[in-house]
Design brief:
- By secondary structure, the chain is mainly alpha-helical.
- It has one domain.
- The chain is 73% helix and 5% strand.
- It is built from 12 helices and 3 strands; from the N terminus they run ααβββαααααααααα.
- Strands 1-3-2 form a 3-stranded mixed beta sheet.
- The longest helix is centred in the middle third of the chain and has 33 residues.
- The chain is globular and about 50 Å long.
- The termini are far apart.
């Protein structure tokens, strides 16, 4: 009986300790400090609220209400504030570019069409995944590059985004994935930093994850340097992205993206 009591008390003690081990106030302060710095440095005129969640998943997300949630698991996973800034700036990119609203509109549209033509739930779900996967992948690319811009102007090292994503992104066939494969994302970020913020690239980033990422990306970089055709393709792609960057800068000064406006109208009409 005494042994059972001791085990029970030890179990309850561990639960109590685990409950107090998570300092949500300190975590929220850390996230808010970085988020506010990113907003202020970039003159972002959006009312974005930063929140933390006591969940062990290595995750963060932005929603239609312009809220950014960072999970406990991710806060414990990032190596420093540079990598955390990469997470927060990426999620800010989704809000600035109206991705949450756009996905909400797409989901509503597919659901409405499916109900009208009486498509069964399985077919509707597959159709929705196929329709949204490419849009979502493009959104992730755009959020990454927006995040790079936000980080750089706020004084953070954008290469920290490569360091973090290399640890958490999978390299998979992405036909039916909402996120692009890890290598594609890393290459996209590297190329953008190289073209727009070459001084940051020369500084590098001191983490094992970044070094491993560069080992993976270097063959593609070397191949491009030795091919006039690939070099021209790279220049053309980056010049196109530069025009998009200029448009994104203007978006930051507004209070809503065009997709937010569409979503608000859709919600009003369906109410």
């Amino acid at each position: 009986m005494k042994k059972i009591l001791i085990i029970t008390l030890a179990f309850l003690f561990n639960i109590a300790f685990a409950a107090t081990d998570w300092d949500s106030e300190a975590a929220l302060k850390r996230v808010n400090t970085i988020g506010s710095k990113l907003l202020k440095a970039n003159n972002v005129n959006y009312d974005i609220n930063f929140k933390v969640s006591n969940e062990a998943d290595i995750n963060a997300y932005a929603n239609i209400n312009k809220e950014i949630y960072v999970y406990k698991g991710l806060l414990e996973y990032v190596e420093d504030d540079q990598e955390l800034a990469g997470v927060i700036s990426h999620e800010m990119g989704h809000i600035i570019n109206g991705h949450c609203a756009k996905q909400g509109i797409l989901d509503s549209g597919i659901a409405t069409v499916a109900s009208i033509i009486n498509v069964n739930q399985t077919v509707s779900a597959v159709g929705q995944q196929l329709a949204s996967s490419k849009i979502s992948r493009n959104d992730e690319f755009e959020a990454d590059l927006t995040g790079v811009d936000l980080m750089t102007k706020a004084g953070y090292n954008p290469l920290a985004m490569i360091s973090l994503l290399n640890k958490i992104s999978g390299n998979y066939i992405d036909i039916l994935q909402t996120h692009p494969s890890g290598k594609k994302r890393l290459q996209n970020i590297y190329d953008y930093v190289e073209y727009n913020y070459n001084s940051k690239l020369k500084l590098g980033y001191n983490s094992d994850s970044y070094k491993k990422a560069m080992v993976m990306l270097q063959p593609t970089i070397d191949k491009r340097k030795n091919s006039e055709r690939l070099a021209k393709k790279y220049q053309k792609a980056q010049q196109k992205l530069l025009k998009k960057k200029e448009k994104r800068t203007k978006k930051m000064q507004g209070t809503n993206s065009i997709w937010d406006g569409y979503y608000t109208t859709l919600q009003y009409l369906s109410s």
